[in-house]
Amino acid sequence: MRAELAAGAVVRNRPSRGTLQVTAPEDLHWMSATLSPRSRRASEQRRGQLGLDEGILAAAEAVVLAELADGAVRSRPALVAACAERGVELDGQQAGHVLRHLTEMMTIVFAGPEGRADMFARADGWIGERRDVRRAEALAEVALRFVRARGPVTRADLGRWADLSMGDVDAGLDAAADDLETVTLDGADYLVARGTADIAEDEVDAALGAPLLLPAFDEYLLGYGTRGPIISATGLELVCPGRNGVFRPMVVVDGEIVGTWRRTVNRAGVTVTVEPFGTLTVRSRKALAAPARAFGEFLGKDAVVAP
């Protein structure tokens, strides 16, 4: 993934809810235009509290664009320092707000990472071809992609994830209706991609067969309003202690969230420590070695699951 980010094959930015997401570069402009307006309006309401106004934003934008001219890539600290040198002093919260604003407006995007530093580039230089999609078509495509990737889902799930009004949700679902169908589960209506409602049980078992080590805040849990089918009430309390909005990394076995995990990284490698909610079978614990190894490969280290 780091190589793809560095090459611009995929791009990290904030197309919806101000949340960092990895997206095909050609989709970022239309997705941001469709999904970020509500987030931008909410962000604008905080500017007075942060001591920012339109003049400061415009001045900071001019400095950032000058620093990123001719295909240059700069880190956040370098951009903040450049602003200060030109008389635009920004504290940590102000700098974060300015950079978030510029990414949501698709003025800049996150470039390939360098170590732990966030790097930025001008959107018009980093992204080559872009798709121009009208709003009605965009709403339909968002709805269809969401349902295909995450179904069964509800209307509310789509609205929450995409940060759209329910009017826009319904417009998108209506436009994509030929490719969707509704199923009723426990008395509630859910949307699925057409042709997938009658998926065979062995296909479900195969899809859920590989255990997962998911990161904190993963959409496997956060993407749905109804979480009962994949985690118990006790387990949810352990994943998000005190319901404080901070979620821990999750262990998934047979489609169910059955524990949390943490990592210890040192020169020797990575140790993954699993903390199950109950008893984890020997077979399941052994199977977690595969996703642990994959995580280690991502970090460029050997990884093992602690006994």
From TrEMBL:
MF term (GO), any: DNA binding
InterPro entries: AlkZ-like
Keywords carried by this UniProt record: DNA-binding
PANTHER family to which the protein is assigned, alphabetical: LMO0824 PROTEIN, WINGED HELIX DNA-BINDING DOMAIN-CONTAINING PROTEIN
Name of this chain's protein: Winged helix DNA-binding domain-containing protein
